[in-house]
Design brief:
The protein is an alpha+beta fold. The chain has a domain of 137 residues. The protein is built from nine helices and eleven strands. It has a seven-stranded mixed beta sheet. It has a four-stranded antiparallel beta sheet with strand order 1-10-9-8.
Length: 236
């Protein structure tokens, strides 16, 4: 597991040809998926290392639609583009976090969308890690963001510069373009995860082929009454 680092050093990383090749390959896959969604008038982003550019062999293509959408529209668009899902699931990381639908085209190639209206902090979560629009992906633009080590990744023509977030939260918030609240929250969560380990996922429910996200989510809401109360004002 990737863990936060404690160093405050600033380090320049120069990419070799293989890393640039992998970046181009992952961006091509991301663009294919995003353009399918754009045609349906959604506004997807790709987030994480594919947005920042600091990719490696374990990097996933994670595309996020930042608003509630009818799941059948996304699934129909994917199937028409011959991007048939291999797996679908609903994930709620903790009882307080955003319920999300995940559609996996491949194990490392997915579309995610919220099942309730996201709060601003929940949307900023994706931009904290680095988020690129379809235009930026198509133009090979790399964006700054923070990785799971709590290192700020800032792209350069040769690769990137990385530096520690801890102790520089306000500066990092400005560079990434998010509020200070999400930076502090992620520092707290990732530091605790480093110290005590991952505590597991609250809900991870795989869907059968004949089930819809909406009907399964409704069942989960009825089953977990506490979650229903917390999400009452945000349900579509």
């Amino acid at each position: 597991m990737i863990k936060p680092v404690r160093s405050a050093d600033i380090v320049e990383i120069v990419y070799d040809e293989e890393r640039w090749r992998l970046f181009k390959e992952l961006r091509t896959r991301a663009l294919e998926l995003m353009e399918v969604l754009v045609k349906q008038e959604f506004d997807p982003i790709v987030y994480g290392s594919v947005a920042r550019g600091d990719v490696n062999k374990d990097s996933d293509v994670d595309v996020f639609v930042p608003h509630v959408v009818p799941s059948y529209k996304i699934e129909l668009a994917l199937r028409e583009a011959k991007l048939d899902p291999m797996n679908r699931e609903i994930v709620v990381a903790t009882p307080w976090q955003l319920p999300k639908a995940h559609i996996y085209i491949e194990e490392d190639h997915s579309v995610t969308f919220p099942l309730v209206k996201p709060k601003q902090l929940e949307l900023e979560f994706y931009h904290f890690g680095g988020a690129a629009s379809v235009e930026q992906v198509g133009q090979a633009v790399r964006v700054p963001g923070v990785d799971k080590r709590l290192m700020l990744i800032e792209p350069t023509p040769r690769g990137h510069i990385e530096s520690s977030v801890k102790g520089r939260e306000a500066e990092v918030a400005k560079r990434v373009g998010v509020g200070l609240g999400i930076v502090r929250e992620r520092v707290q969560v990732l530091t605790r995860r480093r110290d005590v380990g991952h505590t597991g996922i609250f809900i991870q429910r795989a869907l059968a082929p004949n089930e819809s996200f909406e009907e399964v989510f409704k069942q989960l809401i009825e089953r977990y009454s506490g979650m229903k109360i917390r999400l009452k004002e945000r349900l579509p």
